[in-house]
Design brief:
The protein has 465 residues and is α/β, with parallel strands linked by helices. It is 31% helix and 16% strand. Helix 2 packs across helix 5 and helix 6 packs parallel to helix 8.
Length: 465
């Protein structure tokens, strides 16, 4: 038998039927839904007169356009209120688990799945959301799907997918001071470009990922989509198993022992071949920041903005990007005045992200020119922030904690950065208008965001460590 990659092992185990010269009919283990992409899919089921096939395999939470203050009050925006109501109506009708606003387990879909043990190694996981790749941190194949595919999964628990090509990205060595998982993924994307992994499923391997926490691995896999990949995954190991053991929906007793035996087989065979492979040195990675309008336009924080001839994007596109941002080639990024800081999203809304942020702001004060939105990824994270005393540190430094939700990651609620204003954001996309019409986004880690929040300008966080 030929040697297989981790991706091959999980994919092949879920192929229900192969179509000659066509896509595979592919079984889905877990289906996450939220209020934005599901209403039309449920309407499609209703119009066809069919039911959800396996309601217990689908999990719903409200996150994209939920407010992050006063969640106990009626939602003011009529479109958002309608979508939230539709999610509740549809899940009740079909017997689907629903964690809506006010529910103790409510939060961002890609945060609540792992923290409740719904996400497990070797699974196939989909959601009508591109950052479903987050769940690949557990050795699962996880990817975003469109609304018509959401309907397909609800009705058949299967999806039709062509098998992607395989890429491995190795990062070896030891990360330097102040370098977080977010910096690792921004570095990789800057090296490969925002389209560098198009058509591939990426496995992350090497010392850096083996030594990374589960939350760090989720950050890395979350951003896979930002270099064009279908998804990303990391082989499960003792770090994975320790994270999952005892979580509410993880297997228990003998079921745990059986699952563990299977999970330990989920690794790439020694002689397995990838279609493309890259290797990077951890020592080359410093805290990163983006300066353009796609996640590939980023650099080390101590570096100047590159010249157009030194970037993979075309010159016209690059100059348009810098024009939107109000930046120039060869300009220094450190010292740039900023207006907003956003800590949160499915990329960096977990407890480790708040710990990192607090480590810098402790004993310092928020800069007067900065508006800061600190948004936990779930109520469970919110509780941890309070229990660990992080809320006290934030409050003493002049920050306020908001309630869980996607918030300013995509500005579908009231958390919008005004036109022309600069935001250092721990989210995943810096597209034009992503955080509000005309908003200018600089993607960074929680440490870089914290340093900017207390100085009012782009600052190297290593100065504070």
């Amino acid at each position: 038998m030929s040697k297989q990659t981790l991706f091959d092992k999980v994919w092949d185990a879920h192929v229900v039927r192969k179509i000659e010269d066509g896509p595979d009919v592919f079984l889905i283990d877990r289906h996450f839904i939220h209020e934005v992409t599901s209403p039309v899919a449920f309407l499609g089921l209703e119009n066809r007169g069919i039911d959800v096939m396996y309601a217990k395999r689908t999990f719903a939470t409200a996150d994209h356009n939920t407010p992050t203050i006063n969640q106990h009050l009626p939602v003011q925006d009529p479109l958002s209120a309608n979508q939230l109501q539709q999610l509740e109506t549809n899940t009740t009708k079909h017997g689907i688990s629903h964690w809506g606003l006010g529910h103790a387990k409510n939060g961002i879909v890609h945060v609540v799945g792992p923290e409740n043990g719904i996400t497990l190694p070797g699974m196939t996981i989909v959601c009508g959301d591109s950052h479903t790749s987050t769940h690949g941190a557990f050795g699962a194949i996880a990817f975003g799907i469109g609304t018509s595919e959401v309907e397909m999964v609800l009705s058949s628990q299967c999806i039709m997918q062509p098998k992607p090509m395989k890429m491995r990205v190795n990062v070896n060595g030891k990360l330097g001071k102040g370098v977080l998982p977010k910096d690792v993924t921004l570095y990789i994307i800057a090296q490969l470009s925002a389209a560098g992994a198009t058509g591939y499923f990426v496995e992350y391997a090497g010392d850096v990922f083996e030594n990374m926490s589960m939350e760090g691995r989720m950050t890395v896999c979350n951003m896979s989509i930002e270099m064009g990949a279908r998804g990303g995954m990391i082989a499960p190991d003792e770090t994975t198993f320790n994270y999952l053991n005892g979580r509410e929906q993880a297997p228990k007793g003998e079921a745990w022992d059986r699952a563990l035996a299977y999970w330990k087989t989920l690794k790439t065979d020694d002689e397995a071949v990838f279609d493309k492979e890259y290797t990077f040195d951890a020592a080359d990675i410093e805290p990163q920041i983006t300066y353009g309008t796609n996640p590939g336009l980023g650099t080390g924080i101590s570096q100047n903005i590159p010249l157009s001839g030194d970037v993979i994007d075309g010159e016209a596109s690059y100059k348009k990007s810098l024009g939107y941002m109000g930046f120039a080639e060869n300009e220094q990024i450190i010292g740039k005045k900023i207006d907003y800081v956003f800590l949160g999203s499915c990329t960096n809304g977990r407890i480790e992200d708040f710990r990192a942020f607090a480590s810098i702001v402790k004993g310092r004060k928020k800069a007067d020119n900065v508006t800061a939105w600190l948004v936990p990824g779930s109520h469970i994270v919110e509780s941890q922030i309070k229990e660990e005393g992080i809320l006290d540190i934030l409050t003493e430094s002049g920050f306020e904690l908001r309630q869980p939700g996607c918030s300013a990651c995509l500005a579908m609620n009231d958390d919008k950065v005004p036109a022309g204003k600069y935001a250092v954001s721990t989210s995943n996309r810096n597209f034009e208008g992503r955080q509000g019409p005309g908003a200018r986004t600089l993607l960074a880690s929680p440490l870089v965001a914290a340093a900017a929040a207390v100085t009012g300008v782009v600052t190297d966080p290593r100065e504070f460590l």
